[in-house]
Design brief:
N-utilizing Substance Protein B Homolog, Chain A, 16% strand, seven-stranded mixed beta sheet, alpha/beta, 464 residues, Rossmann fold, single chain
Length: 464
């Protein structure tokens, strides 16, 4: 017995306890807290996968889960202690979004877990969850045709739960309030998007932020062909297919627990197709000198070296040794030896005007990758973009120093906000005198088709 709890029982429900613990992070860095908790625990791959799914699933869908909780509280405005609310969130996520977990198990474990924190609240937890389970009905939907309804909680591309009462604000009269609740994001972000996009586009993009992105792997042509990489997955019994970009593989299973054949052999590198396109569109040639200004973890760095056929020089810079080590580790695994790493503070030692191509993959608000970084949905506020834009402008100014005459400066971000993309590019071109040769905004897409999945982002190319 430990704290009155049988050890076997604790082991059985540990992923749920870990999820509720990770969700307590006061700095909204839930993924970081979860990572620390996982590093301290001895769990099976299946339990690790469940802990991640529960934790990040709640972060992705928190607005919808809270709307359901509030709708079923006897006193809607009554404050629920945060540990209990997190237990309710985790249980509701299992009931509404995970078919593989029996509802009775999710409810029973939530009740037992509540007794550890607030015994008097266990009856409320039991009653609320059982009411939800008793009253909801599964319905099939057509995402393209069916307008959103306040009493429908969508859980997949073609399925939803219908409730006997309104859960969300009315989408017709207040689309921003509806989006913030139904698709789980901060109200300032929902309001910004509601002003920019038409209703259909708004719902499509917002809905995509609640999806679990497919695992997409860029094939490393230095070591393998597309067919060789596919053959490895087939031999391992893992369903995989070619992405529409023709350069990547999409894994159709979400329960791999890190077991990827030929990963250590360097056959591929995890990378979203939008990020892959940034390098694929560069005019890279063997023998070039290339500088990656914000390089970690090295996905674009190694892709550039691959496109150069591992001939030439790639300098990869970032802010700390830990990030630098990630770049070196990836390069070694992928069989690349033309990459030299350095701390960002040492970049001033490089010769100005000495690089054919400089990549400035700048920090941003992450609004194009909210499916991958769901915490960013909750961090976005009305004043988020201003400081980020200042940093982006400073990075472009510094990076441009190292572009040789006739060379290229490539600016990329994983945001879909115009202030961080076209506005920054136009301002920089006017300020620097460099020619804006092309720009490519990309909106998130493919929520209903893994082979067409892509994150949102923006890339601009300048010539000196």
């Amino acid at each position: 017995m430990t704290n009155g709890i049988d050890n076997n029982f604790r082991t059985k429900r540990f992923p749920r306890e870990m999820a509720t613990d990770a969700l307590r992070d006061k700095n909204q860095n839930v993924s970081g807290r979860l990572k620390r908790l996982l590093s301290q625990a001895s769990l099976s791959p299946a339990d690790r996968g469940l802990a991640r799914e529960l934790t990040m699933g709640v972060v992705r869908t928190r607005g919808a889960l809270d709307a359901v909780i509030n709708a079923y509280l006897n006193q809607p405005n009554k404050k629920v202690p945060m540990p209990v609310r997190n237990i309710l969130r985790v249980a509701l996520y299992q009931i509404l979004y995970l078919d593989r977990i029996p509802t009775f198990a999710a409810i029973d474990e939530a009740v037992n877990q509540t007794k550890q924190f607030h015994k008097r609240q266990s009856g409320m937890v039991n009653g609320l969850l059982r009411s939800v389970d008793r009253e909801i009905a599964r319905v099939d939907i057509d995402p393209a045709a069916m307008p959103p309804e306040p009493d429908v909680v969508t859980t997949s591309q073609n399925q939803a739960w219908k409730f006997p009462k309104a859960i969300f604000p009315d989408p017709q009269s207040d689309p921003a309030e509806y989006v913030a609740a139904a698709w789980s994001m901060s109200l300032p972000l929902a309001q910004k998007w509601a002003e920019r996009f038409d209703p259909q586009q708004l719902m499509r993009i917002a809905r995509g932020t609640c999806c679990t992105p497919p695992l997409t792997l860029r094939v490393n042509t230095l070591k393998a062909t597309m067919q060789q990489a596919l053959d490895g997955f087939q031999a391992a019994g893992i369903s995989a297919s070619v992405h529409n970009n023709g350069k990547s593989i999409v894994l159709n299973s979400g329960d791999l627990f890190g077991k990827l054949p030929d990963f250590a052999a360097g056959f591929y590198q995890p990378q979203d197709p939008t990020a892959t396109a940034v390098v694929a569109d560069m005019d890279l040639q063997p023998g070039m000198r290339v500088l990656d200004f914000c390089a970690a973890p090295g996905t674009k760095t190694t892709h550039m070296a691959e496109r150069m056929q591992n001939e030439g020089t790639v300098i990869a810079a970032d802010v700390d040794e830990y990030k630098i080590e990630k770049i070196s580790s990836n390069a070694q695994r992928l069989g690349i030896d033309i990459i030299t790493t350095m701390l960002a503070e040492q970049v001033g030692q490089l010769d100005p005007g000495s690089f054919d191509i400089v990549l400035a993959d700048a920090p941003c608000s992450n609004t194009g990758v909210l499916a991958r970084r769901p915490e960013a949905k909750w961090r976005f506020e009305a004043d988020t973009i201003g400081p980020v834009v200042n940093t982006q402008q400073q990075i472009l100014d510094m990076a441009s120093i190292f572009v040789k005459p006739g060379g290229q400066l490539v600016y990329s971000i994983c945001s879909i906000e115009p202030e961080e993309g076209p506005h920054v590019a136009k301002s920089f071109a006017q300020r620097s005198g460099m020619k804006l040769c092309g720009e490519k905004p990309t909106l998130p897409a493919g929520a209903d088709n893994p082979q067409a999945w892509c994150d949102g982002g923006y890339v601009a190319t300048f010539k000196k």
